[in-house]
Amino acid sequence: MNKIKLKNRFASIWFPQLPLETILSKEPLLDSLPLVVSFSEREEIICANGLARRLNICAGMSTKETLTLNPHVINKKVQHSDLKEKLMKLFSFTYQFTPLIRLDGYDSLMLDITGCEKFTGKEEDFIRQLTTYFSKINILSIIGIAGTQGAAWAITRFQNSSNQKQPRVNLRKIINDQSRATRIKIPSDRDIENSQKKLSIFNTSYSVNDPIYKPRTIDSDKTEEALISLPVEALNLESTDVNLLNLFGIYKVKDLINIDSTSINRRFGNHIIKRVRQALGKETELFNKIVWEEKYSFSTELFLEEITLQGISGFIKTLIKKLCDELEKDKKLIRRCNVKFPPNNEVVIEINFSNPTQDKAKIELVMLEKLKTIKSFKNIEAIILEGAHIEEARERQIAMNVPGGDYASKYPDKEEKISLLMARIETRLGKNKVKSFAQHHSHIPEKTFSLDEFKTKKQTGNQWQKSKFIRPILLYSPDLINATLYRDDHLNQFSWRGKKYKTCYVRGPERIASEWWNKDKETNFGLRDYWEVVTTCGARLWMFEEKNKISENKWFVHGNFC
User: No. of H helices and E strands in the chain?
Assistant: First the structure.
């Protein structure tokens, strides 16, 4: 049988202005000022707008350098999580072409489009679809397609017309010029035109029609030919490795190819040659794809003159029906769902189920109960129902001798009723407000139980096991008492909580030792002798004497049998 050999094809989609576009989406007026963007935990500039670039401010500078060039430059911080959220929205569009997608840093996506011609069409058509979509949402994108991941990454960022190394600004000269003048001279249009010819792709005015931002594709058999003219930065190496290579006169990829690999490995390590081989397709590079979680989102716009609770309830019921139909079709269950009312971001309904479900009546009951707690529905233009946590539906055994032709499966009524009750309680009290006692196997009374989050399956499946020792109904925190009289090594009279007690019957002692294997002194205790003490007033207490070799022994009340 003849084997079909497919040529690997990878598409790198780079969004060079993504940090800046993320900031401007929230504060669009900042684009009229010189603006730079950096990460919150670092001082290095990762992106700058056109006005900042005219002042010779570019990516790679520090915030202190930007203030030296112009103190009026605005520096905005961005979080990695914000950029990742933005990339995931772009990821959802590209998922229709291929399921093999991974995040490539904070500003690009890497797609494995091998064998996806049915969905992508020709590569030129595929690039046209991507650029059209990104331009509609005002996102600048640069696309490169090659036979390896490294080659696609390289041709996207380092094209032949922009392979010169970016010059650094001479800050010492600028500071000297500032000392001779009252302000920094703004460069003329001719100076700007001449400087932009020297700058790389990271420091020019962004224009989709600019030839250096045009998408580029290279055939798999021409990978080496396309890479040899690019700088070593195109191999996606660390900046320290690039500086070391430049010190030894290695500036381009062809310089690395022509040098003996053993000398490179001896001086710099084998990871540089490994990157070269991966980019040329001589060695396999791992592709860690993102697992796509399909979102179940349904929305409707409101065209009501008067927004009432009854009207909103009708719209929500319609959305819940669509959600349940989709869940049943895909054999999914929902554990958590949200309802939003844009543009009012303050009104949000969140529903949690301890057991995942696709029961329409159950979701409606809990949702409408939560809806009644909202006092105002002002400034609402739409309703959005989202399935926040979706799970796979497990196969259940069909019940036998069930009346009816469809022989529908019967679910455990007890577990479903408790799950519904918990969902209704959480809509009123809040999430994780219900606690339950959990039993633990320990000889120390305080550690035989804990107060944990309520779980339906655990509560319905397990029963509390009885102890072989006599234990009180109520268990207090060890409460120190004032022992006033002893008789035969046990208490005869004592004071507890402002009241005097006299014993008439005692039984014991039961000795409980400490956890000798536990080195934590804060959670451990000394030797204890427990007594069951019956007082003349009828109180039946569980008390212990804590043994202490250094100081006097102390007595505590630990429980009550009444």
Answer: 18, 21
Give DSSP secondary structure letters for 234-293.
GG---HHHHHHHHHTT--BHHHHHHS-HHHHHHHH-HHHHHHHHHHHTSS-----PPPP-
Q: Which of 208, 230, 206 is nearest to 218 (CA)?
A: 230
DSSP 472-483: -SEEEEEEE-EE
Number of alpha carbons in the 13 Å side-chain half-sphere of residue 469: 17
Task: Please name which of 331, 335, 357 lies closest in space to residue 411, comparing C-alpha atoms.
Answer: 357
Q: Report the pLDDT averaged over residues 31-56.
A: 86
Q: How confident is the model at residue 524 (pLDDT cuts 50, 70, 90)?
A: low
Of the candidates 256, 281, 255, 258, the residue with the CA atom closest to the CA atom of residue 270: 256
Question: Who's near 537: CB < 8 A, 6+ residues apart?
Answer: 501
The C-alpha atoms of residue 117 and residue 139 are separated, in whole angstroms, by 25
Could you read off the pLDDT of 354-386 as tens digits, one per residue? Answer: 778 888 888 888 888 888 888 777 778 888 888
- Listed residue (31, 18, 140) closest to 84, CA to CA: 18
CA distances from 163 to 12, 226, 252 (A): 18, 12, 9
Which residue did the predictor score with more confidence, 413 or 223? 223
Answer whether 395's CB lies under 8 Å from 365's CB: no
Q: Where are the beta strands (DSSP E) in 320-381?
A: 332-341, 344-357
Which one, of 558, 505, 494, 492, lies nearest residue 533 by Cα? Answer: 505
When computed from its CA atoms, the radius of gyration of the chain, rounded to whole angstroms, is 35
User: If 0-12 CB within 10 Å is exposed, 13-18 middle and 19+ buried, where does residue 467 land?
Assistant: exposed
- Answer yes or no: are the C-beta atoms of 318 and 360 closer than 8 Å: no
**E strand or H helix at 191, and its extent?**
helix 189-198
Q: Are 83 and 107 in contact (CB under 8 A)?
A: yes
CA 129/CA 109 separation, integer angstroms? 16
| Rounded Cα gap, residues 493 and 501, in angstroms | 6
Note if the pTM is more than 0.70. Answer: no
Q: Per mean pLDDT, which range of 64-78, 167-181, 387-401, 506-520 is the poorest?
A: 167-181
Q: Crossing angle for the helix pair 239-247 and 270-280, nearest 10 degrees?
A: 100
> What is the percent of the chain where pLDDT is above 90?
13
Q: How far apart are CA 276 and CA 96, in angstroms?
A: 31
Two tokens at 516? 């000798």
What is the pLDDT confidence band of residue 212, given thresholds at 50, 70 and 90? low
User: CA–CA separation, 378 vs 307, rounded Å?
Assistant: 8
As given in the structure block, the two tokens for residue 235 are: 């191999």
- pLDDT interval class at 166 (50, 70, 90): very low
Q: What is the pLDDT at residue 96?
A: 84
CA distance 66 to 74: 9
Across 125-130, average pLDDT: 92
